[in-house]
Amino acid sequence: MSTELKEPSQLVIGLTHRQMLDWMAEDGVFCSPDKYARRLQEAQRRAIAAQKVQEIVESQSSIDADIARFVDSNFWELVASGKECGCHKCIEDKSLRTSAFGPIPLAATRMILCPTCGNKRCPKASNHELACTNSNEPGQPGSVYTNNNTEKTA
Question: pTM higher than 0.85, yes or no?
Answer without folding.
Answer: no
